[in-house]
């Protein structure tokens, strides 16, 4: 596509140097040379001049059309034939500019309604000269639809660009589906060709040996390659036999490779059994216990030969077989030296020494291999920790919005080299990245919730600075929304930022209800603990009983000395205890429990009761 260039420049009379510019693509914009300003829409300060110029141009076009209309006087036949053979071309019709569509003001439209109108506008241009190219950037395609009425259905340029990009993705997917839709293959005429193509179809699509012919007929019954064969069941049965043989051969190869993997990575079977204190061949349960420990060996599970055996049960059975075979071979080797002197009496000491040396070298080689694998596994663990640390630091540096999704965050993170290092071995799996991102977002959201909890606690306190459980939620939320601590970050987190059009994950009302439910639960727990302790009731009840015993002293007893301050204080405390009404305290406690008061409220109300009974002197 050729680049868009100015084609025609028309000065606007009386507009202080403004020009009306028409591009090679038929788009119109307005420019002022001295200020180097250009606008796709008509600036307000020259709107009257542009309308006057357009009205003048409209009158000129009407006058030109009147001059070029054919004369209606009767003419002779010869001239009429000439006119029919070579008609005078009519002037190019003037296409009136589209009248503006009456749309409700932008604030009256929700974001979803504006989005639907904007995408419908882009779709309506398909098949027209102004069709939007989904591969082109936003700035290049903007002149094609900036003058349309539905352009103003969204409130901000950022929203329009986001919806434009979303529409481009849908349009590309639609085109891709049309191009990748295959036409049905023509049916061959020769029977052997038909069977060969049907077999190729089965080979591409049927990979399970449990598939029945009815399943294949239901899936491929309308395919021309299936209907062209007279006996498709015979072709199906032939392929199923071949598929079974292929799977058996692959399973045997996988079993052999798995046994070789066990020999390379693990200790000898006799050593594994010796560590568990097992003599002879292990039974099924013993082999299973050894396998649980053995498969934790570094480098075993990561090997592709491990996953080649598709069943965990099959791997356990192969390991048990490998153990038993190893024990049998070891037993045979141990019994062999007793027969060797009889069979090979002529073997020299030099030959025996060479054989022992070879066995020792083989054992050392196996030990070195295992040691290298363990070192490699240790280095792999260290590299994994370093990769995780780098990626977590990247999240701390880049991601600070708790409402950000993983799909949107990938565009921000991909700009940093730590997201995709040059060495593939330093790259984390996509699942790990998504998991770390989710944990980071959860921490950011918890910080916002802690900030909200402080605001909730602040606005639920009474004039004495005590939290109240009966504060109305509407009052608390109204005060919070006017609080200076309710900053833009909290508004964005709660979806109350008008500039952000994303689906809400939470609201201020929902967060308050969750916090209030947690507070109610804590208050009930504290109050129940206080009732279980009831130390003050036990204390005052004991003093009251002591007072009663003191007043019931026999007449012959010695009087209590009154000149000692300690005794006077004890008597005054006993006198105060006589005024305590334990039943009234219990009724207060039960009423507080029914009103869901906190432990702090209970202490203050009991304090008021004590004052009224002169147990505590008023301050």
UniProtKB/TrEMBL annotation:
Chain spans, region Disordered: 334-363, 546-576
Biased composition (Acidic residues): 560-570
Gene Ontology terms for molecular function: RNA polymerase binding; transcription coregulator activity
One GO CC term on file: nucleus
Start-end of Basic and acidic residues biased regions: 342-354
Keywords: Repeat
Domain WW: 12-45
Keyword Membrane: no
Organism superkingdom: Eukaryota
Keyword Repeat belongs to the record: yes
PANTHER family registered for this protein in UniProt: TRANSCRIPTION ELONGATION REGULATOR 1, WW DOMAIN-CONTAINING PROTEIN
Protein name in UniProt: WW domain-containing protein
Species whose genome carries this gene: Malassezia vespertilionis
């Amino acid at each position: 596509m050729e680049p868009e260039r100015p084609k025609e420049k028309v000065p606007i009379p009386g507009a202080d140097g403004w020009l009306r510019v028409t591009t090679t693509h038929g788009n119109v914009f307005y420019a002022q040379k001295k200020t180097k300003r250009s606008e796709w829409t008509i600036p307000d300060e020259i709107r009257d001049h542009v309308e006057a110029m357009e009205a003048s141009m409209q009158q000129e076009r009407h006058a030109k059309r009147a001059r070029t209309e054919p004369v209606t006087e009767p003419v002779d036949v010869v001239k009429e034939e000439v006119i029919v053979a070579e008609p005078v071309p009519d002037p190019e019709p003037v296409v009136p500019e589209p009248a503006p569509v009456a749309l409700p003001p932008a604030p009256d439209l929700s974001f979803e309604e504006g989005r639907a109108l904007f995408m419908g506008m882009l779709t309506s241009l398909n098949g027209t000269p102004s069709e939007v190219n989904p591969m082109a950037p936003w700035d290049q395609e903007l002149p094609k639809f900036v003058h349309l009425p539905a352009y103003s259905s969204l409130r901000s340029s950022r929203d329009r660009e986001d919806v434009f990009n979303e529409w481009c993705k849908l349009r590309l997917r639609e085109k891709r589906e049309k191009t990748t839709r295959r036409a049905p293959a023509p049916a061959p005429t020769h029977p052997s060709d038909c069977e060969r193509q049907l077999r190729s179809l089965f080979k591409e699509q049927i990979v399970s040996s449990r598939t029945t012919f009815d399943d294949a007929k239901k899936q491929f019954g309308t395919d021309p390659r299936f209907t062209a064969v007279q006996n498709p069941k015979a072709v199906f049965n032939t392929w199923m036999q071949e598929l079974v043989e292929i799977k058996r051969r692959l399973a045997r190869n996988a079993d052999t490779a798995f046994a070789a993997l066990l020999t390379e990575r693990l200790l000898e079977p006799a050593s594994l059994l010796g560590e568990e204190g097992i003599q002879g061949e292990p039974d099924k349960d013993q082999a299973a216990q050894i396998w649980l420990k053995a498969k934790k060996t570094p480098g075993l599970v990561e090997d592709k030969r491990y996953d080649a055996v598709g069943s965990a049960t099959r791997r356990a059975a192969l390991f048990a077989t490998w153990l038993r075979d190893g024990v049998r071979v070891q037993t045979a080797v141990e019994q062999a030296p007793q027969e060797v002197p009889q069979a090979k009496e002529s073997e020299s000491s030099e030959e025996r020494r060479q054989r022992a040396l070879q066995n020792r070298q083989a054992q050392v080689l196996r030990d070195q291999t295992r040691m290298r694998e363990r070192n490699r596994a240790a280095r792999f663990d260290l590299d994994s920790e370093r990769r995780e640390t780098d990626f977590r630091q990247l999240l701390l540096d880049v991601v600070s919005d708790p409402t950000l999704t993983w799909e949107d965050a990938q565009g921000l993170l991909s700009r940093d080299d730590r997201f995709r290092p040059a060495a593939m071995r330093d790259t984390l799996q996509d699942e790990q990245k998504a998991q770390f991102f989710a944990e980071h977002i959860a921490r950011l959201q918890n910080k916002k919730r802690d900030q909200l909890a402080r605001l909730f606690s602040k606005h639920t306190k009474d004039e004495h600075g005590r939290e109240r459980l009966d504060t109305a939620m509407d009052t608390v939320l109204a005060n919070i929304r006017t609080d200076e601590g309710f900053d833009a970050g909290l508004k964005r987190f709660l979806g109350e930022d008008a500039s952000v059009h994303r689906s809400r994950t939470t609201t201020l009302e929902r967060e308050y209800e969750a916090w209030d439910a947690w507070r109610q639960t804590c208050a009930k727990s504290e109050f129940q603990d206080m009732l279980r302790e009831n130390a003050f009731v036990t204390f005052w009840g004991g003093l009251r009983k002591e007072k009663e015993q003191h007043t019931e002293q026999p007449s012959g007893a010695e009087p209590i000395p009154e000149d000692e301050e300690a005794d006077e204080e004890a008597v005054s405390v006993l006198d105060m205890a006589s005024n305590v009404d334990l039943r009234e305290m219990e009724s207060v406690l039960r009423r507080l429990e029914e009103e869901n008061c906190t432990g702090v409220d209970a202490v203050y109300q009991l304090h008021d009761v004590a004052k009224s009974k002169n147990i505590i002197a008023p301050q």
